[in-house]
Amino acid sequence: MSPTRPLSDQPDAALIAHFLDGDEGAFRALYERHTPRLRMLVQRLLGRDRHELDDVVQEVWLAASRGVHAFRGDAKFGTWLSAIGVRVAYNRLPLRSAEDSELSEDIPSPAEGSPATVIDLERAIAALPDHQRVVVVLHDVEGFTHEEIGEQLGMAIGTSKATLSRARHALRRALTEGVTNAT
Amino acid sequence: MRRDDDTPIPEYDADVNALFAALPRETSATDPRAADRLVTRLRHEGFFTRRRSRIGWPIGIAAAALLMALSAWGGWLAGRQGSLEEMLGRKDLTLSDRVLLLQRAGSAYVTAAESYASATARTDTTAIEVASRVLLGAAHAVARNHLDAGVAARLTNVLQPTATPSKPTIWF
Fold first, then answer.
1. What residues in B contact A121, CB-CB < 8 Å?
2. Are A118 and B27 inside 8 Å of each other by CB?
3. B50 and A122 in contact by Cβ < 8 A?
C-alpha cells in the first residue's frame, strides 16, 4: 500500500474535498498555499490603508470557506480566491473620505537624476486615487482585461479604460517628475 | 462629446514595464496566528466537524444491531447443535448415531420421570397413567418398526389366544 501524500503535495481539488469533509489540516494547507499571493493583491488594492489588510484577508477566506462547496473548478482556486479578494477590498474603498480620492503629495519621488525603482513604483501605485489604483493593479499588475475588470467591479469597460488612462499619466509623472497631482 | 471607450491609453516606456514585471507577486510567509484565528472563527461556524462521522452514526448503530442479532443467532445455533431435539429431527444419522440417540432419549425419559416423581408430593394417578401409556406406546413403536428383530411380534403371536378353535377330535 502506498503511503498517503502529504497535504502540502496534494492538488487544490483534493484539499478542498478534504476541507469539505471537515479536515482542518487541508484548510491550513490551502491557506498557506494561497494567502501570500492573495495578501499581496489585497495590499496593493488597499494602498496606504494597510491596517485593514489582515481584516480583509480574513474576510476573503471566510467568504471563500462559506462558498467553497459551490466552487466547481471551472477556474483555478487561486483565481477564484483572487476574485473574492478584489470584491471584498473594493467594497471597502467607498467608505473612505473624499479627501483620500486625490493623489497624495507626501509620497517621496525618486531621487533627482536616479532611475525609479520597484519601491518607487509601489509607492506611486499606493498613492493613486482608489479607483485608479484598483484598475492599475488589476490591469497592469494582475493582467486582467478591461472586460474582466468591468465584470469584477461592476463598471463599464469604457470607464475602466478611461480610469487606466488617467492612472498611467499620473504614474508616469510620479516616476519621472515626482508626485504632484493626479487629477 | 468623447466617449470613454475612445480614451487613448498611454503606454509605459520600457523601464516602467520592467519595473512592473519586477513587482513581487507574493508576500513573505503567512502569520500562523492569523491562520489560528481564522480556524477558530470557522470552527464556531460549524466547520471542521467530520461529516463522514455524522453520516456514519446511523450506519454504525445499524451495524451494531446486525452484529448483535447475528451473534445471538450464532449462539442459539451453536447451543442447538448436537441437542436431543436437533438429533431427533435429522435424517442423515449413521446406525451408531441412532443407537446413541435411542440411549440418550431413554435416559432423558427416565430423568424426566424421576424429576416428575420428585416434584410430586403425593401419588398422582394421572402421572402413572401417562407414564404407562408412554411406555406402552414406545413398546408398540419398537414392535411396529421391527427394532427388536421381530421378538415382540413373535411374543404377541404366542401370547394371543388362537383365533380359530381346533376341530373336535372324535375318539372311538
1. 16, 19-20, 23
2. no
3. no
Contacting residues of B for A57, CB less than 8 Å apart? 34
Own/partner pairs, B51-55, CB within 8 angstroms, 24+ separation: B51/A20, B51/A21, B51/A22, B52/A21, B52/A22
Which of B 75-134 lie inside 8 A of A, CB atoms? none
And the C-alpha cell for B128? 402413572
**Residues present in chain B in total:** 172
Q: Please tell me the predicted confidence (pLDDT) of residue B87.
A: 78
Structural domains of chain A in order of their starting residue, each with its CATH number: 8-95 (1.10.1740.10), 103-183 (1.10.10.10)
Tell me phi and psi for residue B91, to 5 degrees. -115, 0
Closest to A159 (Cα-Cα) out of A141, A135, A140, A138: A135
pLDDT along chain A (183 residues), means of 10: 74 93 94 95 87 92 94 89 94 60 52 76 92 96 95 93 95 74 41
What digits encode the pLDDT tens for the residues B115-163?
A: 776 776 666 677 777 777 777 777 777 777 777 777 777 777 777 766 5
- Residue of chain B whose Cα is closest to the Cα of A35: B30
Q: Are residues B74 and B87 in the same domain?
A: no
Would you list the DSSP string of A42-57? HHHHHTT-GGGHHHHH
Q: How many domains does chain B have?
A: 2
How large is the ipTM? 0.82
B30: cell is 503567512
Q: Do B38 and A116 touch (CB under 8 A)?
A: no
